[in-house]
Specification:
The protein has 11 helices and 11 strands. With about 325 residues, the protein is α/β, with parallel strands linked by helices. Helix 1 runs parallel beside helix 9 and helix 5 crosses helix 6. The radius of gyration is 22 Å and the shape is elongated. It binds adenosine-5'-diphosphate. The site of adenosine-5'-diphosphate has 17 residues, from helix 4. It is found in: Cytoplasm.
């Protein structure tokens, strides 16, 4: 490859900027021209593409969001849209594209690869719902946001002897709830991967209160439903429980990325560039047990991420 482009797509996540910076600087280091595509696949179809240099990615490693902006684009899901995108890149002499995003964005990259553009996907989503990587870019920061919020809730809860239901993001993957739940000592973690019974949850909460527990946190992944509904169901069973509900929402997608996310993004961005230089295509980059890996996009999008049951059971054992 001689010229590559980079775009961010789907939901944004903290660390996307660090990945963009790594791609741009690594490409230039290797003597490759690099272009930014504004607003994801929509920007590609609008030919909203500009040349990037070393300085264009200065002062962004610490910023949340994405300077390239993101968008959803229905047209790109059609073959005509994909052909138009490939043609626009080809006209500019761009033969490689790095896409930072989630599952949907990966599928777009696979389609472009089939049309002759060399593509690499980087996992950019706070949900950690992508297989063949232990972590996605943004996940660690999101977990930090949740833990920080729960620390604050704990202060006021112990003053009032209350329980709290905290709803966090994660549509198909409970990793934010699981990791933040273990780190913040949540009593109950409700996630899509593990069936639960609200009668048991309520009984346990009541027993724990009777045994002197003065505050309890129920963390609910949005994939299992609304925190408000969980709180109502608990209160219906035992009116004395009466939890406060906090919905963290998009706050979880914001803020300065943690060093972990910046370093993950930097390593993956550089890796994706090197893979393109090797002539590889249609791969999703990830890190497994600390090692950088590139896996066929088709395999990644059709494999559900492994769930860490051991960690879930540990969280349960420690939350008596
Ligand atoms: P994410 O990448 O976070 O999963 P989306 O599912 O919204 O987010 O996908 C982002 C964009 O990727 C979509 O707006 C669309 O342009 C493109 N995309 C999604 N699925 C496909 C697909 N099957 N084929 C081609 N492009 C797709």
């Amino acid at each position: 490859v001689k010229k590559i482009a980079i775009l961010t797509s789907g939901g944004d996540s903290q660390g996307m900027n660090a990945a963009v910076r790594a791609v741009v600087r690594s490409a230039i280091f290797h003597g490759i021209e690099v272009y930014g595509v504004q607003r994801g696949y929509q920007g590609l179809l609008n030919n909203d593409i500009f040349s990037m240099d070393i300085r264009s990615v200065g002062d962004i490693i610490q910023r949340g969001g994405t300077i390239l902006q993101s968008a959803r684009c229905l047209e790109f899901k059609t073959l005509e849209g994909q052909q138009k995108g490939a043609a626009i890149l080809r006209e500019r002499g761009i033969d490689g594209l790095i896409v930072i995003g989630g599952d949907g964005s990966y599928q777009g990259a696979a389609k472009l690869s089939a049309l002759g553009i060399k593509t690499m996907g980087l996992p950019g989503t706070i949900d950690n719902d992508i297989s063949f990587t232990d972590y996605t870019i943004g996940f660690d920061t999101a977990v930090n946001v949740v833990v920080d919020a729960i620390n604050k809730l704990r202060d006021t809860m112990s003053s009032h002897e209350r329980s709290s239901v905290v709803e966090v993001m994660g549509r198909h993957c409970g990793d934010i709830a699981l990791h933040a739940g273990l780190a913040s000592g949540a009593e109950t973690i409700l996630i899509p991967e593990v069936p639960y019974d609200l009668n048991e949850v309520a009984d346990r909460m009541r027993q724990n209160f009777e045994h002197g527990k003065r505050h309890s946190i129920v963390i609910v992944s949005e994939g299992v439903g609304r925190g408000e509904d969980v709180a109502d169901a608990l209160k219906e069973r035992y009116p004395s429980i009466d939890p406060r509900v906090t919905v963290l929402g998009h706050i979880q997608r914001g803020g300065s990325p943690t060093p972990f996310d910046r370093n993950l993004a930097s390593r993956l961005g550089d890796f994706a560039v090197r893979k393109l230089i090797e002539g590889d295509s249609n791969k999703a980059c990830g890190v497994i047990n600390g090692q950088l890996v590139a896996t066929d996009i088709e395999k990644v999008v059709k494999t559900k991420k492994d769930f860490n049951m051991e960690m879930y059971e540990l969280a349960q054992r420690l939350s008596q």
